[in-house]
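Intended use. Records like the one below are meant for learning the mapping from a protein sequence to its folded structure. Do not use them to infer anything beyond what is encoded.
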Amino acid sequence: MSTVGILDDECKEIQTIGRYLLVRRLPDGSVAALQDLLFTRALYLGCNTWGWEQRFCYDDAGRANEEFEKLRSAEDVPCGWIARRPDLSKSEHHSLQRPQV
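Structure written out for the chain above:
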Protein backbone atom coordinates (compact mmCIF):
# COMPACT_ATOMS: atom_id res chain seq x y z
CA MET A 1 0.00 0.00 0.00
CA SER A 2 1.29 3.45 -0.82
CA THR A 3 -0.11 5.34 2.17
CA VAL A 4 2.98 6.18 4.17
CA GLY A 5 3.50 9.04 6.53
CA ILE A 6 3.28 10.33 10.02
CA LEU A 7 -0.19 10.33 11.53
CA ASP A 8 -1.30 13.40 13.43
CA ASP A 9 -2.31 12.95 17.08
CA GLU A 10 -6.03 12.73 16.28
CA CYS A 11 -5.45 10.00 13.67
CA LYS A 12 -3.24 8.07 16.10
CA GLU A 13 -5.96 8.25 18.75
CA ILE A 14 -8.66 7.17 16.27
CA GLN A 15 -6.49 4.24 15.15
CA THR A 16 -5.87 3.13 18.73
CA ILE A 17 -9.46 3.47 19.93
CA GLY A 18 -10.98 1.90 16.81
CA ARG A 19 -8.29 -0.76 16.45
CA TYR A 20 -8.04 0.08 12.76
CA LEU A 21 -5.39 -1.44 10.47
CA LEU A 22 -4.79 1.86 8.71
CA VAL A 23 -5.97 5.42 9.22
CA ARG A 24 -5.37 8.42 7.00
CA ARG A 25 -6.39 12.04 6.88
CA LEU A 26 -8.04 12.85 3.57
CA PRO A 27 -7.42 16.09 1.65
CA ASP A 28 -10.76 17.52 2.89
CA GLY A 29 -9.57 17.08 6.51
CA SER A 30 -11.79 14.09 7.32
CA VAL A 31 -10.44 10.72 8.44
CA ALA A 32 -10.78 7.34 6.73
CA ALA A 33 -9.82 3.92 8.10
CA LEU A 34 -9.56 0.23 7.24
CA GLN A 35 -10.40 -2.68 9.53
CA ASP A 36 -10.82 -6.41 9.12
CA LEU A 37 -14.17 -7.80 10.19
CA LEU A 38 -15.04 -11.49 10.49
CA PHE A 39 -15.54 -12.15 6.76
CA THR A 40 -14.82 -8.81 5.10
CA ARG A 41 -12.51 -5.80 5.11
CA ALA A 42 -14.28 -2.58 6.02
CA LEU A 43 -13.52 0.90 4.75
CA TYR A 44 -14.76 3.64 7.09
CA LEU A 45 -15.40 7.29 6.28
CA GLY A 46 -15.97 10.19 8.66
CA CYS A 47 -14.03 8.60 11.51
CA ASN A 48 -13.53 10.27 14.86
CA THR A 49 -12.91 9.13 18.42
CA TRP A 50 -16.62 8.34 18.81
CA GLY A 51 -16.99 6.14 15.72
CA TRP A 52 -17.67 6.61 12.01
CA GLU A 53 -20.30 7.96 9.62
CA GLN A 54 -20.20 5.39 6.81
CA ARG A 55 -18.86 1.85 6.37
CA PHE A 56 -18.29 -0.05 3.13
CA CYS A 57 -17.53 -3.79 3.30
CA TYR A 58 -15.48 -5.71 0.75
CA ASP A 59 -15.04 -9.44 0.24
CA ASP A 60 -11.71 -8.64 -1.48
CA ALA A 61 -9.22 -7.00 0.87
CA GLY A 62 -7.07 -5.86 -2.05
CA ARG A 63 -10.01 -4.00 -3.58
CA ALA A 64 -10.72 -2.33 -0.23
CA ASN A 65 -7.09 -1.22 -0.05
CA GLU A 66 -7.23 0.21 -3.60
CA GLU A 67 -10.44 2.14 -2.88
CA PHE A 68 -8.97 3.42 0.41
CA GLU A 69 -6.04 4.89 -1.53
CA LYS A 70 -8.37 6.67 -3.99
CA LEU A 71 -10.38 8.54 -1.33
CA ARG A 72 -10.18 12.34 -1.32
CA SER A 73 -13.13 13.31 0.91
CA ALA A 74 -15.75 11.97 3.32
CA GLU A 75 -18.26 12.52 0.51
CA ASP A 76 -16.57 10.00 -1.81
CA VAL A 77 -18.44 6.75 -2.44
CA PRO A 78 -15.97 3.95 -3.16
CA CYS A 79 -16.69 1.24 -5.75
CA GLY A 80 -16.94 -2.54 -5.48
CA TRP A 81 -18.37 -2.89 -1.97
CA ILE A 82 -20.79 -5.69 -1.06
CA ALA A 83 -22.48 -4.02 1.94
CA ARG A 84 -22.90 -0.49 3.21
CA ARG A 85 -23.80 1.00 6.59
CA PRO A 86 -25.93 2.87 7.04
CA ASP A 87 -27.90 1.23 4.26
CA LEU A 88 -28.97 4.35 2.37
CA SER A 89 -31.22 2.42 0.02
CA LYS A 90 -33.60 1.84 2.93
CA SER A 91 -33.49 5.43 4.20
CA GLU A 92 -33.87 6.80 0.66
CA HIS A 93 -36.86 4.52 0.15
CA HIS A 94 -38.52 5.85 3.28
CA SER A 95 -37.78 9.46 2.36
CA LEU A 96 -39.67 9.00 -0.91
CA GLN A 97 -42.89 8.02 0.85
CA ARG A 98 -45.56 10.65 1.32
CA PRO A 99 -46.12 11.68 4.92
CA GLN A 100 -49.45 10.59 6.40
CA VAL A 101 -51.85 13.49 6.90
